[in-house]
Design a protein that fits this description.
Order of helices and strands: HHHHHEEHHHHH
Distance between the termini: 55 Å
Number of helices: 10
Radius of gyration: 17 Å
Helix content: 55-70%
Shape: globular
Number of domains: 1
């Protein structure tokens, strides 16, 4: 069991996501990102199957055929596509969660690939796993558009509130919620 190494990996990942979410104007999503990974259900299984180069959830699935940590995690974290599958099929992800998910994919690549990470990694990962779970067509198009821009233009181009809002509204056809500063 690799308790210390897993703790460092999870915490490093969370800090990276938090910093990226801050850039996109979603500080609360960054602060609360993946807190369930510290719960006993997720933490203990992940420490047991820790490998350091990829997710311990994938290693647990490879060895046992399932992951209790994943079943726990996906139901509590709306930045995962799997969270947005209803009995009628996939549901479009709301703005704040799909942007957090983009930040999560970038941070995961950096955490596991370390010095071998480059800005094309999230898009490569996306294409490698596309079709493995149902996903709403607009959400899928948003991911592909943003991750393609990342691979071409880099983080500075996509990791900001203006780019994310404009792109979400263009692709998903929904205005993002603006906070009303006036009291009624």
């Amino acid at each position: 069991m690799h308790i210390i190494k897993h703790f460092i990996t999870v915490t490093t990942h969370r800090i990276r996501v938090m910093n990226l979410c801050f850039k996109c104007g979603l500080p609360w999503r960054g602060i609360t990102h993946d807190l369930s990974k510290y719960s006993p259900t997720e933490f203990l299984e992940s420490a047991k199957y820790y490998v350091g180069k990829y997710s311990p959830i994938a290693e647990c699935r490879r060895l046992t055929g399932k992951s209790e940590a994943w079943l726990h995690h996906k139901g509590r974290n709306p930045h995962h596509e799997e969270y947005w599958i209803d009995t009628t099929g996939p549901v479009m992800m709301p703005y704040q969660y799909v942007v957090e998910s983009i930040c999560d994919k970038i941070a995961a690549g950096k955490t596991y690939k370390k010095q071998n990470y480059d800005q094309t990694e999230p898009l490569k990962y996306w294409y490698a796993h596309l079709g493995t779970i149902p996903i709403h067509k607009k959400t899928e198009k948003f991911y592909e558009y943003v991750l393609t821009d990342l691979s071409i233009h880099g983080e500075k181009y996509i990791l900001n509130k203006k780019y994310m809002k404009k792109t979400y509204e263009k692709i998903c056809g929904e205005k993002t919620k603006k906070k009303n500063s006036k009291r009624k």
